[in-house]
Amino acid sequence: MKENIKLLQQKIMDAAHESTEHVQVNSGDVGLWLKSFTQHLSDELIFSEKDLSGVKHDDVDDFNLLKDVIRKELSAIISDISSTSNENVFDQKLDPKFRPDELLIDHFCQCCWVQCPFCGVTCTNTIENHHGDHSVPFHRVAGLKGRCYHQTDDLSADFCTSLVTSEKQFRISDKWFKCNDYRSAGGVYADWSITPDKSKLPYWKWFVCRFQKDLEEYYDRKFQGHGEIPDEWRKHDKPDAILSLDKCF
Length: 249
Ligand SMILES: [Zn+2]
Ligand SMILES: [Zn+2]
Description:
Blueprint: H1 2-25, H2 30-40, H3 53-57, H4 63-84, H5 87-93, H6 100-109, H7 160-163, E1 169-172, E2 175-178, H8 187-190, H9 202-210, H10 212-219, H11 238-248
Antiparallel strand pairs: 1-2
The chain binds zinc ion (2 copies).
One zinc ion (ZN) is lined by residues 112, 114, 123, 125, 130, 134.
């Protein structure tokens, strides 16, 4: 917690510093400063320019002042947060209905647990309502499970819902199978219902870009060559990614 708070403080100060430079270079005003400041932090904090709209009306014409105010106020706020947070207050502050650990335990205790052979996503059917094939509303990128292209170190950047519409092939114990006829591979492949679908959840696009380095290190393979990450994926930021999840559920 403390390390995260320190990191966040540094990021906020960096954003303030860079915004001041940006405004100086572009001979901008307080409005531009606020825009730049919020954009710099959009991956870290959930707030928008509107939350700071009062600043514009407060006759602030010196944007250097904003940086100083943030530096001063931030230190006070951070030491406040640090002194009031300790392990004991965590339980009180978390609404028991929305505790992430409880939600996950509840979900996975009754979950089927069988993973998609392409992307590794866990079947979301519960044991009671599981009739027939394994399925999930959204598949992920196959490279998340470490799948790569034959005789290369190129991690796959394919969503399995697109893979099953393609002419591509995959190999199991020296035998090749068509992705668009994946069930013919038998075993767990035969038991999964993967709906062909061109839609790709922005959350997973963002996730792959955000954790690209970690995934590449973990699997000792790279998103390159056949598995090059499309430029469009990098346009999604964290709020975008979260919003795409909200729309699904
Ligand atoms: Zn899948
Ligand atoms: Zn299942």
